[in-house]
Amino acid sequence: MKVLLVQNVKTYYGNIQALKEVSLEIREGEIVTLIGGNGAGKTTTLKTIAGLLRPREGKIIFNSKDITGIPAHKVVSESVVLVPEGRRVFSKLTVEENLQIGAYCRKEKKNKLVSEIKEIYNIFPRLEERKKQYAGTLSGGEQQMLAIGRGLMAKPKLLLLDEPSMGVAPIVVKEIFQVIKKINQELRTTVFLVEQNAKMALAIADRGYVLETGKITLQGTTEELKESEEVKRAYLGV
């Protein structure tokens, strides 16, 4: 079943066209990755899906519903959640307060949130150790864990992850990618992963797309992409 369908989307910053008829699809239960160089339009793609940018042309269909151009808070209400590049945690709030904010749109009773926060701590034990600590004092890797945990508190059916490895120590990157796989398999959350670390992304994803200067230039299973000479040369250092 197709969870997300992006059809011929064109997105602009003023008069500058960032996305040029981007089309892609994500099926339920998949991890799909979007790889590409700096300035290719990867973050713009996620922001357009998440409602932070309005496409000038094209359609975005989620669970058979047209969500093209609807405000970001309504996209979250449809269970599409973006974990942004740079983490964007609330630095002057504690770890636990950040997690509570993640469930804001759901308006759940407090006792239910307590049990759901416990589930996040089971996924990220380090966050439980630091639950009363201000988020701004965490390491880059811990902040990334918190950002993902906060996103999960919104109970997404589709989790959009923007560069989760950025600014994170290499040893922690491996842990974060293992957790992304766990979220997909155990929580049955569909994941759309934007990542410059193509090797790590292709190691956990089912399928992938390559974006260059606002256009999808390649697509296929991760095995197909790993065998592509273009991908090897440009993104895998082979």
From TrEMBL:
Belongs to the ABC transporter superfamily. It holds the Pfam family ABC_tran. It comes from the Bacteria. This is ABC transporter ATP-binding protein. GO terms for molecular function: ATP binding. PROSITE patterns: ABC_TRANSPORTER_1 (PS00211), ABC_TRANSPORTER_2 (PS50893). Residues 4-238 form the ABC transporter domain.
